[in-house]
C-alpha cells in the first residue's frame, strides 16, 4: 500500500499571487501543443502554416476552458448551478469536463477554420494528435491535487489519498489515465497521422481511442459523488458520454476509408 505524496497544490506563491500546479499543467499542454503543431504545420498537406498555429491555440484554449466548465456544470453538477448560478463562473473552485471541453474545441475549430478558409475536418485532423499531451498533463495535475481517485483496491500499488473520506487504498486512476490518455494515446495518434490519411480518419481514431480508454478506466475510477452509478451498479456518466464517441469515431473511420485519401 502506498501513500499519496501530498504535494502542495500551489507551485509558486508570491504574496497574494498563487500559481497552482494544475494551472501549470494546462500551460504545459498548450505550449507542447503549440510546438507540436508547428512541427505538423511543416507537412505539405497541413491546412495551416506555422504562424497560424499560435492563433489556433488561442481559440482552442477558449474552447477548452469555456466548454470544459460548461460541460461539467451540465453533465455532472447541474443541481449546484440551479441552486447558485454564479457558481458557473467560479472556475477556481474546480470542475472541468473533457467531453464539454471537446465540444468547445470543436466549435473553436469550426470558427477558426472558417476564418482561414479551411474545412472543419481538416482542422480537426490537424489538431487531434496534439491533444493527448494536454490530457496527460491534466491527469498529472489531478494526481498532484489528490482528486478523482479510484475505487478501493488491494493491488500492491493501491494508494491512500488523504482527501478521500476514508483511509482505504485506492486505484491511482489519475496515473492510469495519464498512461492511457496521455502517453499511449499520443503514440498512437502521432504515428497514425505521420502520413496522409483519408479526411476524418485521424479524428475518428481520436474519438475511438479516447472513448475506449475512458470507458475502461471508469471501471476502477470512483464515480462522482453527486451522481454515483447511473445503472447496473457500474455504469458511470463518463461511460455514458464515452460510448457515443466510440460509435461516432468508428463511423467516421468507415466513411473516411470508403472515400479514400483526399
Tell me about this structure.
- It is a single chain.
- The chain has a three-stranded mixed beta sheet with strand order 1-4-5, with no helix packed on it. Strands 2-3 form a two-stranded antiparallel sheet.
- Strand 2 and strand 3 form a beta hairpin.
- It starts with a strand and ends with a helix.
- The protein is built from nine helices and five strands.
- With 262 residues, the chain is mainly alpha-helical.
In short:
The chain is mainly alpha-helical. 60% of the residues lie in helices and 6% in strands.
Strand order of the largest sheet: 1-4-5
The residue ranges in which pLDDT falls below 50 over 5 or more consecutive positions are none
Largest sheet: 3 strands, mixed
Overall pLDDT score:
90
What's the end-to-end separation, in Å?
A: 53 Å
Shape: globular
Oligomer classification = single chain
- Number of helix segments? 9
Q: Total number of β-strand segments? A: 5
Strand residue percentage: 5-15%
Amino acid at each position: 500500500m502506498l501513500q499519496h505524496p501530498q504535494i502542495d497544490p500551489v507551485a509558486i506563491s508570491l504574496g497574494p499571487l498563487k500559481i497552482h500546479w494544475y494551472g501549470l499543467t494546462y500551460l504545459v499542454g498548450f505550449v507542447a501543443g503549440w510546438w507540436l503543431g508547428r512541427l505538423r504545420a511543416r507537412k505539405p498537406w497541413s491546412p495551416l502554416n506555422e504562424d497560424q498555429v499560435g492563433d489556433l491555440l488561442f481559440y482552442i484554449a477558449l474552447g477548452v476552458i469555456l466548454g470544459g466548465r460548461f460541460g461539467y456544470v451540465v453533465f455532472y453538477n447541474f443541481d449546484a448551478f440551479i441552486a447558485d448560478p454564479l457558481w458557473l463562473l467560479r472556475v477556481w473552485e474546480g470542475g472541468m469536463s473533457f467531453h464539454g471541453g471537446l465540444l468547445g474545441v470543436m466549435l473553436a475549430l469550426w470558427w477558426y477554420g472558417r476564418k482561414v478558409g479551411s474545412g472543419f475536418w481538416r482542422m480537426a485532423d490537424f489538431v487531434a494528435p496534439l491533444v493527448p499531451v494536454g490530457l496527460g498533463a491534466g491527469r498529472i495535475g489531478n494526481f498532484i491535487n489528490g482528486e478523482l481517485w479510484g475505487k478501493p483496491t488491494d493491488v500492491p500499488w493501491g494508494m491512500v489519498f488523504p482527501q478521500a473520506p476514508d483511509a482505504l487504498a485506492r486505484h491511482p486512476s489519475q496515473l492510469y489515465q495519464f498512461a492511457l490518455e496521455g502517453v499511449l494515446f499520443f503514440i498512437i495518434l502521432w504515428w497514425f497521422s505521420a502520413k496522409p490519411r483519408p479526411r476524418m480518419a485521424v479524428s475518428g481514431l481520436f474519438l475511438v481511442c479516447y472513448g475506449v480508454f475512458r470507458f475502461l478506466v471508469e471501471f476502477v475510477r470512483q464515480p462522482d459523488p453527486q451522481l454515483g452509478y447511473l445503472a447496473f451498479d457500474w455504469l458511470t456518466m463518463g461511460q455514458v458520454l464515452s460510448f457515443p464517441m466510440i460509435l461516432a469515431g468508428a463511423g467516421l473511420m468507415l466513411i473516411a476509408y470508403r472515400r479514400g485519401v483526399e
